[in-house]
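Troubleshooting log. The previous run stalled partway through. Resubmitting the same two chains, unchanged.
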Amino acid sequence: MKIAIASGKGGTGKTTVAVNFALSIENVQLFDCDVEEPNCHLFLGFNLEKVEDINILTPVVDKTKCDFCGKCSEFCQFNAIAVLPEDVLVFPALCHGCGGCAMVCPKDAIVYENRSIGIIEKSKGGNIEFYRGVLNIGEAMSSPVIKALKKHVDESKTAIFDAPPGTACPVISSVQGADYCILVTESTPFGFHDLLLALDVLRKLEIPFGIIINRCDIGDDRVEKYCDTERIPVLMKIPHDRKIARLYSEGIPFVNRIPEWKVKFVQLLDKIQAQI
Amino acid sequence: MKELTVISGKGGTGKTTIAAALVSLAENAVIADCDVDAADMHLILQPEIIETIDVSGLKVASIDETLCIKCGICKDACRFDAITNDIRIDIYGCEGCGVCAYACPEGAISMIERKAGDAYNSETRFGPMAHARLGIAEEASGLLVAVVRDNARKLAEKYDRDLIIIDGPPGTGCSVIASIAGVDMVLVVTEPSVSGIHDLERILDVADHFNIPAVVCINKYDINEKNSLIIEEYCKDRGIEVVGKLPYDDTPTKAMIQEMTVIEYSDGEFSNKVKDLWENVREKLT
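Second attempt completed without errors. Output:
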C-alpha cells in the first residue's frame, strides 16, 4: 500500500508524521518526495548512498549544420531555445527535455546531451528502507526527480511518500498513484484554507484521504467542525507539546522518546486499511 | 522601484505573517502574494478585488478518438509518460510540449488551451495588491508567479509606489525561482530546528546562485537557543546579516484569527521586534 502525506500549508508536520509513522510500523519504505527541501534524513541519522543521477535531455545545436531557420524556437513551448540571425541560444534551465526541437529541425542540427538536475539517494543500513530525491540548487523542475524516486517503490511493502508543501505540480507528482493520502493540518485560518485547496486536488485525483490535526490545541475548532460536516475521518490529533516541539527542533523522532505514540501510529495504519 | 521577496526554503516558518506585518509598516508598498498554490496573504489583508485576469497556462494534448488508429507513435515520442497504454492523455502528466501532436501520422492530436488560474489586482487597507489562485491540480505555478509579479510592477507604476513586497512560496524550485528572479533582496525567514537550518543553507545557495543579496530573520528563536546561535554563526561565516530575531509567541495565531497583521493586533514584544526587523530591512534596501 502506498500512503502519501501532504498538507497544503507548509510546516504543519508532514515530515514529523511521515518519519514517526515509518518508525512505528513493519515492512516499510519511506520516500522523501520534498526534493526541494528534503528533511526526513535529519531525523533518521542513516548514512546515505547515491543510487542514480536524474538527467534530462537538453539540446545541443551543431552550428555548422544549422541554417538559423527558427523552426525549433517556434516549436518550443518553454522558450528554451532562441534563434538569432546568426546564432542559436539554448537556455537549459527552461528546457523540459521534450525532444521537440530536434524532431522539427530540417537540418538534423540538434542532438541531446544529459544534464543532471538532481540525484536519488538511499539509506545504507537502518531498519527502514529510505529513499530521497534532491533537486540541484538553481534547478526549477522537481517533478522528474520525484517521478524517478517513486520508481523505487516495492509493492510488497507499505510505502510512505512525504510530499512537499503547496498544491502545485511537485505535490501532484508526489501523491499521484498513492492508495491513500493523509493531510496534516493545523486548525488556524492559514492551515484550514490550504487544507481546503489540498482537498480539492485529492478529490480531483480521486485519492481517498483522512486528516491529522497537529498542534490541535492551538487556533480554533474550524478544522474539526468541517471534518464533522463533510464526514472526513480525523485519524489522529497531536497536541501542541513543548517536548515534541523541542525534540523536533533537535531532529529526534518523538516515537523514540515517547513510546506510547508508536501504538497510535500502528492504529493509524489500521484505520487507513479499514477505510480503503 | 525596489523589490523584496520573503522566502524560507522550509514551509511554515512565518513568511506570510512577517510579509503582512512589513506591508503594514511600509508606507508606500505594493503587495504581491506569489505563493500562488497555497496563497494565504488575502486572509489577513482581505483585499477587495478590482480586476480578475484569466491566465492561460501551457496547452494540453487532446486525442480525437475518431481519427486515432492506436498506432502508439505518440506514446513512444512522449518523454513524460503522459500517454497511457490504451493511448489516452494523462492530463496531469502532460507538459504541453506538442511533440505527440507533431508525431501523430493521423493528425488526431491537437493542443488545446488550458487555464492556469486567475490573477487578481486588488485594493487593501495598506495599498494595492497583486495575487492569484492556481486552478485545482494545475501545474503552471511558475508562470502564474511571473504574471503576479508583472501585475505588481504595473500597480506600483500606476499608484507611484516605490517598493514591492513579495510573499514567496516554500521550496527552492520553479515558483521560488520565479519569485526571486531579479529582485533587489530576499528576506529569508528561518527557525532554529535542524530542518530550518538545513533548508536555510539550501535557500541561501539558491539566492547566491542567482546573485541576489539575502538577509535572515530567525523566527521562534527561543524554541532552541542553541540552534539559533548555530544559525547566527553560520550567517556570520557567509557574510549574511541576521536582521531580526522573533520570539515564540501566540500573537501570530491570534492576529490571524482576527484577520489582522501582528502590528495591528498588538503592540507587545513580538510586534516591536517586527518593527525593528523592518527598520533593518528598510535600511538595507536603500
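Takeaways: The first helix of chain B runs from residue 15 to 25. Chain B is about 40% helix and 25% strand.
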